[in-house]
Every structure is written in structure tokens, then in C-alpha cells.
Amino acid sequence: MADITIMKTPAETGLAQLFESLKGSLPGDLSVRETAMAGFAERGLPHRRIEEFKYTDLRALLREAAPFAEKPGSAELAVAFNHAKAFTGLAAARLTIVNGHVATELSEATAFPAGVEVASMNEALARGHALLGWLGAVEAARGNPVYELNTAFMADGAVIRIPAGTAVEQPLHLRFVNSGSQAFATATRVLVVVEEGASVTVLESHEGPDGLACQPNDVIEFVVGDRARVRHVRLNAEGRDALALSTLTARLGAEVSFNTINVVSGAQVSRHQVFVTFAGENSTARIDGANLLRGRQHADATLLVDHAVPHCTSRELYKTVIDDEATGIFQGKIIVRPDAQKTDGGMKSDALLLSERATMNNKPELEIFADDVVCGHGATCGALDEDLLFYLRSRGLPAAEAESLLLQAFLGQAVETVENEAVHDALVEVVEGWLQARH
Amino acid sequence: MLEIRNLVVQIEDNRILNGLNLTVHDGEVAAIMGPNGSGKSTLSYVIAGKEDYEVLDGEIVLDGQNLLEMEPDQRAAAGVFLAFQYPLEIPGVGTMTFLKAALNAQRKARGEPELTTPELMKRVNAVGEKLEISRDFLKRALNVGFSGGEKKRMEILQMALLEPKFCILDETDSGLDIDALRIVSEGVNALRSPDRSFLVITHYQRLLNHIVPDTVHVMSSGRIVRSGGKELALELEANGYADYRQQAEAA
Description:
Shape of chain B: globular
CATH superfamily of chain B: P-loop containing nucleotide triphosphate hydrolases
Strand content of chain A: 35-45%
Radius of gyration of chain A: 21 Å
Strand order of the largest sheet of chain A: 2-1-5-7-9-11-13-15-17-19
Oligomer: heterodimer
Organism (chain B): Enterovirga aerilata
Strand order of the largest sheet of chain B: 6-7-8-3-9-10
Order of helices and strands of chain B: EEEHEEHEHHHHEHEHEEHH
Protein name (chain B): Fe-S cluster assembly ATPase SufC
Family (chain B): Belongs to the ABC transporter superfamily. Ycf16 family.
Structural class of chain B: alpha/beta
Number of domains of chain A: 2
InterPro entries (chain B): AAA+_ATPase, ABC_transporter-like_ATP-bd, ABC_transporter-like_CS, FeS-cluster_ATPase_SufC, P-loop_NTPase
Domain ABC transporter (chain B): 2-246
């Protein structure tokens, strides 16, 4: 019998070599990284025959593993700062992360109420921060290859703790900026522990210049205590040549209210993975998204909502607008465990195709093992309604303006779930900016 | 005002208008009546510029401008307004946002200064009051969740606000109860003026008791087969369209 050797791609070999050369200098417990890297090495980069990655074949898309970025110096920080435009008009406490490393020089973490704890992940790992036990709290994410790579390579990020009962009024803005001219990779990890009865709004922006082939792999993990309230808004405005992988995990206690929205206008290729687990009863989660794609952009949203306990409600609403030859992907799965009676789950993905060469792949799934639940899903895909366009034009709106108004309304249905008015308005501006660039 | 000459129109190889001729003078209210399928709604869409229709021959001239060469929005800016038989619901577009965008787009096209929001609010509220449209409606998405009658009133509100010179009412009476019919008719009558003309498309005489026309035209198989004064509508109501169907088939 012949031995079977699985051929490794140059990127897989490159990642293994990078790990060998970096592992001595990465902070924290090496065995955790080694376990993750071994798990990754066993299966390799996911490809289209792996169902979860059917539409985003990373083996084909990630041709070469770029080296991980060094901590930038002050001159590089100044250049990077020019790329940081998102949410700048908002009053917020800011933590800036440049090329995957916290830049304390550019952070404005002055406005936190007493007790709110923010530490860099690099230091937290090196010192063995007490909250690190919460990393990987959502089991379903742990075997995911993108998450495993992040665990193996994570170099910095943040550990944030909102103490019990604390209502943080001002949003906390995690500002990720990638800057430079040579291709590089980053692996950041943010852990947000929101204790019982606390509330917080977390904003994430991810930006960088066009022409920079960066490969960010960002993970944010929320551990949400009973009766806590979390609002999370993420903006992917990466440069046009970025390959951006991101993962959000959330473990929700009882009577929690958790909302997250991901708005994508940037990156050549992006994949945003969401793993939400209901671990306590009577909680509610919204997972929304608005993807604005043009050129040859490829944006994947893959969501997994695990109703492990009864009496929880989840809603997903994704709106995707696709122009030119771009591709949108929505894969949403709701799992209702045998005990999770009275689950209320609803998932919807709507796409508008503005060009004949635009592509949308919609794959909503329900796996229901309980018998007393209300769950539904829907997906639509189509062009702008000609009759609506005519109605608007018959009232005097030129074609371009009529189209913009309809697209704004379409995307607005996802964006309007953001309750914070200033944040909502900032997202509307992103949408308007994208629409204006169309004409 | 409006001159239609030998208009021939088809949709997907289906001939709908067969050499239609019609003249509407300044300040005139012209009613078009006719059986189902005679091409009345097609005529209204072709004047407003809907793209699904293929114009094979003829012309439509509004005060010297050839409408067939203009985009729908250019026609609107030139003074054409179509009150839809079935006004569309536009989720996510606020009524005020829409009204402001429409009015200012037309003003811009005509080289007039744009209206500010307070100026617009004042005008909208004044018109809305006459049409008994509650201010709550103006806060909602356009026509979403409106009843048939409310949608028709919203059409007339748009008409009053945009001040077109050539108004087409496509079966505005369909789906209206007696009270709504009165409110809508009063709204239309208030807009009658020597430099504004109307094309009122309807199946029934009923609407014409409220909006009294100057001329009545009978349409059948894609052309005007008879024209007369307002008394013609009464005759149709009494005798039906049977004579005209036969006439059209014979021709």
C-alpha cells in the first residue's frame, strides 16, 4: 500500500515556518499556541470542499503567507494615523492598534469610568492576566481554522473588563489601522468581559490604504454576564488589496441584550465569522450586516447562532449591495438544541445585484432539535425594482438619484438597528460615501 | 398645452395604441373614458415616460417640447405629473425625504433655488391639511401601510406640491369611498387654473360629477373614437361601451 502524502500549499508551508521562527518571541503560554497550530496543520487551509468555506476557498485565495508585521516606530505611526478616518467625529474612548500592535501614543483611553479595565493583549498574555481563562469561551469557534491561526499567532490586542453594574456611556472605539507598503500579516485578539448588569458600546474600525496587501486576522470575543447589554459596531474599510479575516464570538448569559453589526465597504477579500452561543435564558441577540461591494471584491459573512438554552431570541438581518463583478456570500446557521424550547429565531439575507456580472451566494440553514420553537429564514436576491425607479423618476428624480435613494433605503434597514444616533449617522455617511463614488 | 399625434405603441409585440390623436388646451380638463383594455393606462404611462413601452410612431408635444425625447425626470421637471392608479410603497424612504428630494430635483432641473426643510414643511403642512392627511403619515415611509384612499390622497398632495402644468389622473377614483372621493376631488378642483390642464382617466361617470370635465373622449382599441362635452359621460353611463367596442372592431 502506497503512502499518501498531502501536498502542502506554499502558504501552509509558509505559516508553519513563520510559527517556528516566531514562537519563541510570542507572549504567553506556548502550549496553547502549539495545540492550535497542530490543529491547523492537520487540516491545512480550508478549501471549497469544506462546507463552511465552500464559497471562500482560502487555499486558493491565500497564495502566500505574508510575514507578521513588526511593532511600528513613531514615524510609521504618524503615517498610519492619516489612514484613521472612521468614527473620528464621535466622542469616544479610543484604543489604536497599528499593524496589529497597540499604539499607546495614539490612544485616548482617558474617558473610562472608574473600574473599567483596559490592558493590551500583549501584556495580558505575558503576565497571565486573570481573565485569559475566558479566551475560547465559545466552543464552536475553537476548531475553526481562521480562529486557530489567530490563537497560534496572536501578538496583541486588548483585554477589556466592564465591572458588574457599570454603564459605560461613551462608546469604546477600537481603531485598527494597517499601514505600510510591503505585504504583512497581523493577528489581533480582543477579549471583552462585560460583567453582570453592565453595559457598553464597542466600535471597531479597520482601515488601511489601497495597494497594501495586508492579511489581518482579527478576533474579538465577548463574554457577557447576566442582564448585561452590549452594542457592537464593526466597520471594515480596509484598503482595496487587503485579505481580511475576522471572527466574533459571544457567550451570552441570562437576560442579556447583545447587538452586533458588521459594515463592509473595504478589502479585496473579506470573511467575517460570527459564533454566538446562548448560555443563559431570556436573552436576545441581533446579528446584522451591510455589505457594499464593487470591483472584484469578495465578502463572506458566515454566522453560527447556537441556542443551547430555552427562551432566547435571535435575529439576523444582512443587506448586500453588489456592483460590477463583486461577490457576496451569506451563510447563516441557527442551531436549536433539544432543550432550547421556546426559541425564537429569525434570519434574513437580502441582496441587490447592480450588474449582470455580480454574484450572491445565500445559504441560510436551520438545525432544530427542539419541538416548541418559532424559527424562520428568508433570502432574496434581485435587481433594483424598475417600477419603484420609474415612480421616483416620474416625480423628477434623475436616474442616479433615484437609484441612490432606493439603495440607501435598502441598506438603511440594517443600519437602523443601531440605536446610538451618532454611530448610526456615521454609518449612514459610509453608505452615502459609497453611493456617491458610484456615479 | 398637449398635442398627441398618431401615437402607435406596443409592448412585447402587443399593439396597444393604434394611431391615437388628442389635443388638450390650456386650462382644459379632458376626461378619457373607455372599457378595460382600451389602452387608457398605457397612454398615461407613455406620456410620463415608462420604459416598458415601445413607441413605433407619432409624437407627444407639451408646449412645443417633444416629450418622447425626454427622460421621465425631465418630463416631470417640464411639468408632467402622473397620479398613479396604484401608488407604490417605498420601504425605508421617509415621505418628507422623498418630497424634498423630488421637489428640489425639479427645481434644480429648472434652475430654481432649492427649498429649505422649514420652507418645505410649511408647504407640505398647508396642503396636507386641505387633503386631511395627518402629520403622522408624513413621518412614515412613503405609502407603506397606507390604505388605498390614503395613497391616493398622497398622490394629490404630491401634485399640489410639485405644481405641474399637465396632470394625469389614472383611475384616481378606484378604491375610494365617498368621503375620500370628495376630498380628492376638492384637492384637484383647487388646482384647476387657466395654465394647468388635466387628463382624467376613469371608467365611471361618478368621478366626473366631482371633477367636471370640459371635454370627454371615448377610447377604444387604442384610439379616441368619439369626443364631446361633459354630457357624453352621462350618455356612456346610460348605454355602456358596447357600441364603441363594435365600432372599433369594425374599423
